[in-house]
Amino acid sequence: MSEDATINPPETRAAWTPDGEVKPPAPKVSEDAVIAAVSTVYDPEIPVDIYQLGLIYAIEIADDGKVKVEMTLTTPSCPSAQELPGQVEDAVRGVEGVTDVDVEVVWDPPWDQSRMSEDARLALNMF
């Protein structure tokens, strides 16, 4: 490979058929990548991310890149109730291959401290 091709790689072009452009399939969305994105969201009152707190109940990833997240809050009167779902949506939208995000706040089953990871319990001195 020439030095010029290394510095300026050739432009990648989509294939064409008589019906039009054939786009390559979207990359598969990794559950680990979604979990990593969700783990960047913190409850402002608790110095632990919401995944470790056990606020994420389910992550569903469709083949077309749509992601559904079911989450809860520590209490229905949580002061961050308006902010956290939006922050989760924004974080998941940044994952490669995600085409749409639906964040649903659920209250059943209610959250309790048993849903926290061991690391979260250690961080908060809750044994």
Automatic annotation (TrEMBL):
Residues 31-105 form the MIP18 family-like domain. Residues 1-27 are annotated as: Disordered. It comes from the Bacteria. Pfam families: FeS_assembly_P. This is SUF system Fe-S cluster assembly protein. It comes from Neoroseomonas soli. The lineage of its organism: Bacteria, Pseudomonadati, Pseudomonadota, Alphaproteobacteria, Acetobacterales.
